[in-house]
Design goal:
Chain A has helices at about 1-5, 10-50, 90-125, 125-140, 145-155, 160-185, 190-195, 200-240, 250-255, 265-290. Chain A is mainly alpha-helical. In chain B, about 80% of the residues lie in helices and about 0% in strands. The radius of gyration of chain B is 24 Å and the shape is flat. Classes of the chains: A mainly alpha, B mainly alpha.
Chain lengths: ~290, ~300
Amino acid sequence: VSTETATRPAGVAAGQAVARGRRRRPLNRQVLVGGTVVLVTVLVALVSLVWTPRPPGAQDLGASLLPPFWMDGAKGGFPLGTDLNGRDLLSRIMVGAQASLFVGIASVLVGGVIGLVLGLVAGYFGGWVESLVMRLVDIQLSLPGVLLAIAILAATGKGLFNVVLVLGFVSWVQYARIVRGSTLGVRAQEYVLGARALGATHGRILARHILPNILPPILVVATINVSSNILAEAALSYLGVGVPLSTVTWGGMLNEGKQVFELAWWNAVWPGLAILLVVFGINLLGDGLSER
Amino acid sequence: MAGYLVQRLWQSVLVLLAVSVLSFVLIFLSGDPVAALVPLNARQEDVDNIRRAYNLDQPVAVQYLIFLRHAAVGDMGESFRFKSDALSLVLGRLPNTILLAVCSMLLSMVISLPLGILAASYKGRLPDAIGSTVALLGISMPSFWLGVILILVFAGGLRWLPASGSGTWKHLVLPTVTVSAFATGLLIRLVRRSVADTMGQMFVVTARGKGLSERTIAWTHVLRNSAIPIVTVMGLQFGALLGGSVVVETVFAWPGVGWLMIQAIEARDLPVIRAAVLILAVFIVAINLAVDFLYTLLDPRIRLGARAA
């Protein structure tokens, strides 16, 4: 932008800047709304580490299946109602944010690092390394991630960290493809050639000259990947192959509530709405970021 | 062209081999499958007999080769649970899964093509806002949860449609809507973006300059040229639909491969898990191959040069 305006007369450039500022506002709204939702979720997760209205695991069989506050039969202190064991749904929804965010972010880090390394190596060195990586990409792409994740988790067993590793493992492809593509472009730039001529090592060129230049598109993919991995974790936990029920997760709450949905719809609605809201927020943020 | 076909076929064979290794090895990470087959108080002798009967006493590499040799002629072992041929069990469920996936794909196309084109034509205005929000909701909704809510409303509350099972068209409605939600959202976004990109091209300006109606431009000039990315994603999405149906089939007790697989996982029924993964993979690879051939029909340029990665 700056080089473009520099070549034009000052008055025109100023006028353009104003027009551009105005045009940008609707895009910023996506970032603003999405970012707010994400921020609130993070805050709720942090608060729930130290405080919830009630202990999330506290059972009270006298308070089983209480409805949310506006319905007949609601009891004070349980604004969103309770589950079959009389546990407070609001407290559990708050705590559930921890697992969703943790799995979403940690699995993206795992997948991102694998994809980044393989993509960089493939794009920078080329040759048989590149063919090998791209063949792996083809293989991974022809299998749906959820199917693969279920199959792997069926073998390794449930667990928070297993879910993180498996979701990271099935999402590395996206990063590897983009990183390889942009590395190919950056590698051909003259400053990379210059660095080579000055005697920089491959490692230094990759870390100092190539990596910083390919990061922005990766960040957009990573943002959207956080949301898809949160969805995947919820599905896995709902099926009973993901995070074990000893950790409070939204998917796990839906799994536990299955039998009482007809009796107490709030057990089905709140966890799903929580997932929908967070994922919607992250996707909105990702959209806004990708359109700049 | 022939070279390209051969290359793609060879690649598909490699993919399938990789899948077979993966599905074979993974299941061995899970611990001793014999433990699932025998009662807790079984005598050591019986345990050993079962181990031998299923070749579980051989080294893993030998077991894999045995498995591969048998799989090549369609023998994927016998279900531990049902004591019947695993492959025919899976193949028997396959039509239900395909029916669900095809109906869902059709539904997403019927919704997403017009909505996507409309959104692109009125970019930044009301139809765009509606289309984009619907799309974002579609890709943000946990599909199994949508299924649960649909059951509560249409089966529980209104009593219009059955909550689970199969047999009539009524059983198909809720699962189809549920499976298609994500694909619909994705396709609306994709159609919108690629149509909007194409509309900026010079040949569209020319067509408009010739005085063609907006409708003719949209359907003949724009849609044909936006088709490649749309067909790609639809092909990939069909595979994802098959995978996603694993989750949704379980919600609706839809007797497809996915539900069978989840039940097999609960029962640690190895041959069935393996057969299900392999059959779904074969199917997905075949679809990807078909999509690639479809490309060459849509874009003659691909027939000449190698496909860009």
